[in-house]
Amino acid sequence: MTEPGTKPRTPLFEPMDDATRARLDDLCDRQGLSLFDPRVQDALPRKWQLYFQQPSGIPDVFPAPLNGLYENPDRLASTARWQAWRDGLESFAAAKPDDPNVPVMVAAAEELLAWRAAIAPEDRFWKPDA
């Protein structure tokens, strides 16, 4: 139910049909697999598969200890939000050229943006740009 004065939320993913849900229940509940198992992901609808294939946008390894707290956008954030994050990191890199973590974070954001650019509009699951 929607609160008065608010817009109803639009689901980002299409609902699963009963057959898909039953297959996932079998894989996850009876076989003890998680959503991160490729056998489970293959049974998911396309947009759900793409969600798991999308790069995280953050580095797997940082070359040095972090010298601050960075709050990156989430996986469902709009592309404009990820571009703003990347642009902010590039500005930060110019101000702190000795920080080895910033170029790695910029590269991770660029990887996510390049991946998204290759996804067909009808397969996009993230929030649209405002």
Characterize the structure shown.
The chain has 130 residues and is mainly α. It has two domains: 18-53, no CATH class; 55-130, no CATH class. The protein is 45% helix and 0% strand. The chain has five helices and no strands. The chain has helices at 18-30, 38-41, 46-53, 79-95, 101-117. α4 (79-95) packs antiparallel against α5 (101-117). The relative contact order is 0.14. The model has no long low-confidence stretch (mean pLDDT 84).
The DSSP helix count reads 5
Order of helices and strands: HHHHH
Biggest sheet layout:
none
Number of strands: 0
Strand content: under 5%
Label the structural class.
Answer: mainly alpha
Helicity range of the residues? 40-55%
Give the overall pLDDT as a whole number.
84
- The N- and C-terminal alpha carbons lie at a distance of 24 Å
What spatial form do the alpha-carbon principal axes imply?
globular
Radius of gyration: 18 Å
Low-confidence stretches: none
Question: How would you summarize what this structure contains?
Answer:
The protein has 130 residues and is mainly α. It has helices at 18-30, 38-41, 46-53, 79-95, 101-117. The model has no long low-confidence stretch (mean pLDDT 84).
